[in-house]
Every structure is written in structure tokens, then in C-alpha cells.
Amino acid sequence: MVDAPIVKRVEYTLLNIDDEQLELLSAQGEMKSDVNIPSEDHLKDVADMIKRVFEEGKKECLITVLATMGKELVIECREGQEV
Fold first, then answer.
1. What pLDDT does 4 receive?
2. Single pTM value for the model
């Protein structure tokens, strides 16, 4: 038997950026504000896209958060429907 971590992947809608902290809304209508813009080098493109889509304000910004072993990390950003 080998232990495997439980990994949870959730998509949120970005509502606001406060410094480096993201204010997110889940599909169930719950607010989440304890996730930061990714600062890791391999996620620099994701961080840049989050800022660009949010600043343009033309489309909703959908953020994918990966949670495992008590840690959460933004791993993906995509454009949603027009606002």
C-alpha cells in the first residue's frame, strides 16, 4: 500500500485583487480571500494573465486553485464570458 495525497481542484471567479491577495467567488456563492497571486517562477505567465484579464475587465477571470496537504496554489487562469 502506498499513501497518496488527496488533491482538490476548484475553479473560482475573481472578484478583486487586493495587493497580492485574490478575492474569489465559488460556484456555490462562497467568498474566499486567503489565496495569493502565484509568485513561483513557473507560474509567472499565470500571474501575468490574472492581472491582464482583471485590469481589462471585459471578461470574467476564472481561477483554478489546487489544494493538497493543507496548502493551496493558483495553477491556472482563463477568460470566461463577457461581463
1. 86
2. 0.88
